[in-house]
DNA sequence: AACTATATCAACCGCCAGACA
DNA sequence: ATGTCTGGCGGTTGATATAGT
């Protein structure tokens, strides 16, 4: 049974919106909230379908949208999240406040994908195209781990989104149709400022459970989140990392703590990417959070590969992972991450890296490290030498 | 100046999942 | 249990802008 169209297409306008239409839509939503998108066009006096109105609002008219060029930090975040989540633009957008999924998608397709491609990196797998790396555990081991972790991250994001929706419903049930409430409700995640929590209080229990569970299976059971669906995993449950929602949020928030210059004024070298990866082991000033977010996904993948890969049946190593929240800590602990990228260096390291090292399987892991290091050095160096404005890649 | 190629991005389309009757 | 409605998502298109010849 096919579904009926969202609205009667006959006589409805399509194509670019006029300022007058924008004004009508804005005025209506300011006064009444959007309510039912299907019913909105008639009420607002627009010859558009509800879907078109919703898109126009969410992608363009919403007041909490940041427009203009993406900062280097935003680019970095997109690349890393894309490596983790794939083309899940809405999920990526939740980690880039004030950016819409459509905008991120466009930016990826027109800028970042091409850039990675020209660098010889497969924008889908985020691996070098001529990747000949084959670990002794098999070529798919780390990929499988990453995929598995991505599944959990995806599930977490979905659960998070559901909780946001629930919170939105709750808040809307207590509100009139004022724009204020509408805005809060429709952008509970993406509109958060650095001082505002990105997730509703209702998700804290989930966060807590994710953080404290000793295994995914018990964690999920303990949360009693009725609609939290576990993804179908290709690995045993014991390999799954706990996901720290708060940490992931902080990871995004931390990227905003720094002075983010708009309109592409930032440069990679100002962020210290180049230095952090070319002077491994050095620690600029020793202050926590003083270095911008430099943790690489590839390093993360590497660490997961070594940690999980070597602990497939090792409860001990897994317990470490669960307790320390390695995944998100890696995202967060840029400093220690940069310090301890090499498996051979004698510098400080966090527990995750200790785990990776202690449980690693020798030379194959070292090779993997080298491969990963080269991969991200490539990305970061190339980006460093090619600011968007003068990039030879465009 | 005219034409063509390429880049950009707003908007559309089709599909899906959840809610609801 | 089933069908319909609705909102949301990701892929794609097409109009416009810009660069190159």
Summarize the structure in words.
Residues 121-130 have a biased composition (Basic and acidic residues). Its main location: nucleus. Residues 121-140, 338-366 are annotated as: Disordered. It is found in: Nucleus. Keywords: DNA-binding, Nucleus, Repeat. With 394 residues, the chain is mostly helical. The protein has two domains: 19-61, Arc Repressor Mutant, subunit A, CATH 1.10.10; 69-394, no CATH class. Helices cover 55% and strands 1% of the residues. It has 19 helices and two strands. It has helices spanning 19-32, 40-44, 50-61, 72-85, 89-93, 101-118, 141-173, 179-186, 204-212, 216-223, 245-257, 268-271, 273-278, 297-309, 315-324, 326-332, 334-339, 351-359, 363-385, and strands at 121-122, 127-128. The protein has a two-stranded antiparallel sheet with strand order 1-2. Strand 1 and strand 2 (127-128) form a beta hairpin. The radius of gyration is 22 Å and the shape is elongated.
Essential attributes:
394 residues; mainly alpha; Arc Repressor Mutant, subunit A; two-stranded antiparallel sheet; 19 helices; DNA-binding
Secondary structure: elements and pairs:
Elements lengths: L18 H14 L7 H5 L5 H12 L10 H14 L3 H5 L7 H18 L2 E2 L4 E2 L12 H33 L5 H8 L17 H9 L3 H8 L21 H13 L10 H4 L1 H6 L18 H13 L5 H10 L1 H7 L1 H6 L11 H9 L3 H23 L9
Antiparallel strand pairs: 1-2
Helix pairs in contact: 7-8, 7-14, 9-10, 11-16, 14-16, 14-18, 14-19, 15-18
The protein binds a DNA duplex (21 and 21 nucleotides) through helix 3 and helix 6.
